Model the fold of this input.
Amino acid sequence: YKRPISVEMKVIAAQGKIVEIRILKSTGSKAVDQHILRALKAAKLEPIRYADANLTFLLQHQFEVEKPLL
Done:
């Protein structure tokens, strides 16, 4: 099993907090997609020092899924 998932994440720069996630390309498995979304919602990125508290940015990333996560 090896299918990538592509996501777009909206991040609050000063906090590194992921506040929105959108799947751009699914793995083909709703269960695997949901597992990845749950993991991303719990994740936190490195904050950007001195960024305005209201500054957000969009980050697109593709993850390779090597084995089922379930």
Observations:
- Residues 30-42 form the longest helix (13 residues).
- Helices lie at 30-42.
- The chain has a mean pLDDT of 91.
